[in-house]
């Protein structure tokens, strides 16, 4: 059986986590219930503490339990952060539970882009810049209609300045376009003013 808060997750997630020998980290124990219930959340914790899975495991649980269809989870991260193991670990866990993951940025091949339009992944990892571009094409805009949650990685790099303003406008534009709010999760290893950044993310974070 899965341990700690992992025991509350969808059975397929429990089995995958148990098979991999993953156990909850402190940040995952603290945040899982709130994210599972649909709450917005800013997660500030050191590198290597399990922030990514703290956000994604409850969202994957919701995807499975609630039957989210199409491109349901958007994971926005700076381009340089894609060099980490974010996509590899997420690919492992999504595949293990029968969900799919896609990666889209400026260097994504045209054939892969076409594939993503034909069969949208459940989770899309992208950059802030590519997120903005998604509004410009009719087929890409259609993919955005099924978004249920947005995860913003390295939030401390984007909340201040023009990139943060553009991203905030993009999320507001997304919610206006689909006619409902989406769940918003922010991840950061360090934030100088957590309350201010949380308010930037959501009034409910």
Describe the protein.
It is a single chain. This protein has 205 residues and is α/β, with parallel strands linked by helices. Helices cover 48% and strands 13% of the residues. It is built from 10 helices and 6 strands; from the N terminus they run ααβαβαβαβααβααβα. It has helices at residues 11-20, 26-36, 51-66, 86-96, 110-118, 128-133, 138-144, 155-158, 162-178, 194-201; strands at 41-44, 73-76, 101-104, 123-126, 149-152, 183-188. A 6-stranded parallel beta sheet has the order 1-6-5-2-4-3, sandwiched between helices. Strand 3, helix 5 and strand 4 form a beta-alpha-beta unit. The longest helix has 17 residues, at 162-178. The protein is globular, with a radius of gyration of 16 Å. The two termini are 31 Å apart. The model has no long low-confidence stretch (mean pLDDT 89).
Protein traits:
alpha/beta; 6 strands; 205 residues; 6-stranded parallel sheet; 48% helix
How do the strands and helices of this protein lay out in sequence?
Layout: H1 11-20, H2 26-36, E1 41-44, H3 51-66, E2 73-76, H4 86-96, E3 101-104, H5 110-118, E4 123-126, H6 128-133, H7 138-144, E5 149-152, H8 155-158, H9 162-178, E6 183-188, H10 194-201
Helix pairs in contact: 2-3
- What structural category do the secondary elements indicate? alpha/beta
Radius of gyration, in angstroms, nearest whole number: 16 Å
Number of strands: 6
Strand order of the largest sheet: 1-6-5-2-4-3
